[in-house]
Specification:
The chain is α/β, with parallel strands linked by helices. The chain has 16 helices and five strands. It has three domains: 164 residues, Rossmann fold; 69 residues, Serine Threonine Protein Phosphatase 5, Tetratricopeptide repeat (Alpha Horseshoe); 100 residues, no CATH class. Helix content is 61%, strand content 9%.
Length: 374
């Protein structure tokens, strides 16, 4: 039996990602059992006690041995330690040691993961989070260190597995991070409100940063706007940014602030309808219904269905009806569900309606013909 190749992975982090750190050995074991590699976890837990050495020097020895250096951050950067020279904490010392070794030898591979923070914290980060955000900007500008963000432990585990296997199979991209750019619509400055002018000036800065690939800078500016702006158009573009940046929680938070400002169920109903009643949904509905009808009726039936469902009056009545029967919170929950784990349901909904409704009516008419007499 062939011996598996061993890949040593060092886990570095401040003290606020306990759950991710706890799951790390489990990911290593699962991946080792499923793949042709043996992934060996390393960290301060593996450092042997010593009375003659600085404890961090023992841990640094593990950094020198690893094939992959993994750093995970959330809100904290780490407290200053009196026995670190030239660094603000142990995690920074470990990272810089790994980075120098990579520059000299091409190893270890460095992965950095950042857990999402809420928008209010991103807008007013404080000392510890500010250091984390500054570090993220450095990574973004370097295009050398592979870094990603995540929202949940489950997402972290999935991303970690993907990146470890990509390393083992020699499939990592070069350069390690490619510059992502986000293009957003520009609002006309309809003056003269001072507040609007301030919002548009800040949004202009954020848009330039996003267009130039400086997404960390853009995220901080948009986060501030999300907390201070009362301009609905500004909040719409802010939400677009976070959606395109892959931060669904932040996008949802901006949407909820927008709806809170408007206090309008109809706007929430529009958001829900935009998710469920898409053109794709209508095409599926038409196709499913036409398959059950004689071909000579196809043109007339399709025309009638599209006229009904795409008419302005139908949509207005639908929005009014939803606003009448559901609260803002309920409509938001529906929209959130269909954007997220219910996305596959939304994708099947038009086809389902086109098939199920005619079938049910046909069965009922056969079982209870008196119900369908004119």
């Amino acid at each position: 039996m062939s011996v598996k190749r061993t890949i040593r992975v060092f886990f570095a982090s401040p003290g606020d990602v306990e759950e991710e750190r706890r799951m790390f050995p489990e990911v290593m074991e699962t991946l080792s059992n499923r793949s042709g590699y043996r992934f060996q976890p390393l960290g301060f837990e593996n450092a042997l006690a010593s009375t003659k050495q600085r404890p961090q020097d023992i841990i640094n020895g593990l950094v020198d041995q690893c094939d992959i250096f993994l750093a995970v951050f959330h809100r904290r950067w780490g407290q200053y330690s009196s026995d670190t020279v030239g660094y603000t904490g142990y995690t920074e010392e470990e990272f810089e040691r790994a980075n120098r070794r990579f520059a000299d030898t091409g190893a270890p591979e460095i992965f950095c993961f950042f857990k999402h923070v809420d928008l209010s914290s991103l807008a007013d980060p404080g000392e510890q989070l500010t250091k984390v955000l500054e570090f993220r900007r450095r990574l973004e500008e370097s295009h050398q260190v592979l870094y990603r963000t995540f929202a949940t432990v489950t997402q972290f585990m999935a991303e970690l597995e993907k990146h470890l296997l990509a390393f083992a199979n020699g499939e990592l991209p070069t350069p390690r991070t490619t510059a992502r750019r986000i293009h957003l619509p520009i609002l006309a400055d309809r003056q003269p409100e001072t507040e609007r002018s301030h919002d548009l000036a800040m949004m202009g800065q954020a848009q330039l940063a996003a267009k130039g690939g400086r997404l960390e800078e853009a995220a901080e500016l948009f986060a501030r706007l999300s907390q201070t702006s009362r301009n609905i158009e500004v909040l719409d573009i802010t939400r677009q940014f976070f959606e395109q940046a892959g931060n669904a929680d932040a996008a949802q938070a901006v949407l909820e602030r927008k709806l809170t400002l408007l206090h309008d169920r109809r706007l929430a109903a529009h958001e829900y309808a935009a998710v469920v009643m898409s053109q794709h949904w209508l095409d599926d509905l038409v196709a499913a219904m036409l398959r059950q009808m004689p071909i000579e009726k196809h043109d007339a039936v399709e025309h009638a269905i599209r006229k009904l469902f795409t008419g302005t009056r139908f949509r207005e009545l639908m929005i009014e009806s939803m606003a009448k029967h559901f609260t803002v919170g309920e409509l938001l929950s529906l929209a959130r569900f269909y954007r997220g784990e219910g996305g596959t349901v939304a994708g099947k909904f038009g086809h389902y309606m086109g098939v199920a409704v005619p079938e049910i009516i046909s069965l009922l008419s056969k079982e209870n013909p008196e119900l369908f007499k004119s």
